[in-house]
Amino acid sequence: MVEYVAIFLAIQIEAARMITPIESAWEPDLWRRELRHAIRSARELAQSIGVDPDRALQEPDFPVLVPRGFAARMRYGDPDDPLLKQVLALPDENVAVDGFVKDPLHETVDGISKAPGLLQKYKGRALMIATGGCAVHCRYCFRRNFPYNEHTSAALRPAIDAVAQDASIEEVILSGGDPLLLDDQALASLIAELSEIPHLRRLRIHSRIPVVLPERITQALLDLVMQCRLRVVVVVHANHANELDVSTARALAALHDAGAWLLNQSVLLAGVNASAPIQYALAHKLFEQKVMPYYLHMPDRVAGTHHFYVNDNEAASIYRQMQAELPGYLVAKLVREVPGESAKKLLQD
Known about the structure:
By secondary structure, the protein is an alpha/beta fold.
C-alpha cells in the first residue's frame, strides 16, 4: 500500500512540474535574439526539417519568417506536418482563383478606418494596428496584403485621440501584425496612454507570439499586465495541438498568473486541422495550458490561400462532431467574418 501511495505522489509531483512554470519569464533580450536568427527562406525551412526544398516556392511575394523554436516542433522529414504547412510557401500561392482577393474583409474601404491605425467594425470596440510586423508569417494570413505603411506606429497618436473622443468605445484591441512585437518600453507607453482614457474598460491583445515565440513573455511584459488599470484579455492563436509544448505552457501560465484572461482563436485549414479529432486534441491541450477556446474561424478568401479553404458543409460536420464529443465550454464558436455585418456570423448554433 505504501508503495502505491509513493508512486501516486511521484506521478502528481511530475504532473505539477510539467504544467507549472519554473520561472515567471525569460531573460529580457532572448526573444530578440531568437527573432534575429529566425528562418527567412522557404529553402532553409524545408532543409532544416528534412523536406525536399524543391517543392517550396522559393521567392514568394509574402516573405517566409519562422522562429526556429516553432520549426523545432515540426516532425522531421514529414512534408505534411501540420505546423510546416502553415508557414511553408508553396507554388499554390501564385495560382489565381476566382473569389480570392487581396482584401476579402474590406478593411481598407471608407468607413472602417476611423483614423490611421484604427479600425472599427463592431459597436463598442475598436482595433488598433500597433505594428505591421509579426514573429511568424502564416501563409493563410488575411492581412498579408494590408497596407501597413499607411498604419504605422508613428501614426498612433491620431488613433489614440480618436478613441479618447468616442465615449462609445469601451474596449481597444491591439492587433497588427502582432502587437507583442513592440518592445516593452513602447508597449508600456501605449498602454499607459490608453489606460488614461476614462471610458475604456478592457484592453484586448491579439497575438500569435506566446505560441510561436514564447520567449517574448518577459517580466517587464508581465508587470504591464499586472499593473494595467484596464482588464487585460490576451487572445492567442494556435491551430493545432502540436504547436503547444512546455515552452508555451510556461509562457501562458505566466500570463494567466499575471491576471490576463486567455482565449484562443484558430482558423479551420484544409490539410492542417480540418478534422474533428484534431480539434478535440487542440481544445484539450489549450485547456491544459490555461487557455479557453474562443473562435474557430472559417478561412477568409484571401488571394494566394485557396489551398487552405474548407467548405461550409465540411466545417459544419466537423463542428457537430465537436459538439457531441466536447463539453460546451471547450467548443470554440465556428464563425465567419462578413464585411459590413454587426458581428461575426455563427455558422452553427
